[in-house]
Design brief:
globular; mainly alpha; about 270 residues
Length: about 270
């Protein structure tokens, strides 16, 4: 992978991790266009995913600090879950949302890897599903809820687990699911971006463990240090821009534009990706 290709792939990862268009799907399309197997280069994959986590921390750092402080404070009082304060319930929702993706990661990781190697047909079909979900969430008018419930957190977590399929946008799927359940737009954007941090970091640690066991040279797969560095920086900067932009887009209810984009991208991928 050249430095220019690393920059392009890093920007793709940074933008599409937050925008509801599927980062994995676009990396697969980009790999096919440029002949670069980014998903097969473990260190590059780890680097760009960690970069997007850091961009989330930069954009939402204030909210994260507020939640952590509130979590460490005294409960509101009362029996059981009713006694938790708002920040403690928020953290509990994050933990509950992680259960489905944790199960997929532990028990079905090899099956997911097999899907990633099955070509662009799966990517095209999943982009069409993403388009449908975004459209449904735009036109649905459920009763608005004051806060995300444990039940909603688990259902949103299920949608995140399904979004391991390439072409099925993680942010698009989780935000659309939350909106169709009646949760507020801005709250869902923030929850979607925060709930993915632990799974990404956990996957990165597992990948680094595999790299240590299999050998660092195999993990780099010919990738230069300069290409790794510029790919990381590109993903980080693009991630900051996309995260801020996406929060604004969701709050204004403009997801329908991305539904049209995913529809077009899915159709073109199915036509030309065979």
């Amino acid at each position: 992978m050249s430095v220019l290709e690393a920059i392009i792939m890093g920007i793709l990862q940074g933008l599409t991790e937050f925008l509801p268009v599927s980062s994995s799907g676009h990396l697969a399309i980009g790999s096919a266009l440029f002949g670069v197997e980014a998903e097969e280069n473990m260190m590059f994959t780890v680097a760009v995913h960690v970069a997007t986590v850091l961009s989330t921390l930069v954009v939402l750092g204030g909210e994260i600090w507020k939640i952590l402080k509130g979590t460490c404070s005294r409960p509101a009082g009362g029996p059981g879950l009713a006694g938790l304060n708002g920040d403690q319930r928020y953290v509990l929702n994050i933990l509950v949302s992680m259960i489905p993706i944790g199960i997929v990661g532990v028990f079905f990781k090899d099956h997911v890897k097999a899907v990633f190697g099955s070509g662009l047909t799966v990517v095209g079909c999943c982009l069409l599903v993403t388009a449908a979900l975004l459209a449904f969430s735009y036109y649905a008018q459920p009763r608005q809820k004051e806060q995300i419930s444990l039940r909603d957190a688990f259902i949103i977590g299920l949608s995140q687990a399904l979004a391991v399929l390439p072409g099925l946008s993680r942010s698009g799927t989780t935000i659309a699911t939350g909106l169709m359940l009646g949760n507020k737009k801005t709250a869902m954007a923030q929850f979607s971006f925060l709930m993915v941090i632990p799974p990404i970091l956990g996957e990165a640690l597992l990948d680094l463990k595999d790299a240590a066991e299999n050998g660092i040279s195999e993990a780099f797969n010919g990738l230069s240090a300069s290409a790794l560095a510029v790919g990381f920086i590109a993903a980080f900067v693009a991630g900051i821009i996309a995260c801020k932009w996406m929060i604004s887009i969701v709050s204004k209810g403009k997801l329908i534009y991305f539904a049209w984009y995913c529809l077009a991208a899915g159709i073109l991928t199915l036509i030309f990706g065979r």
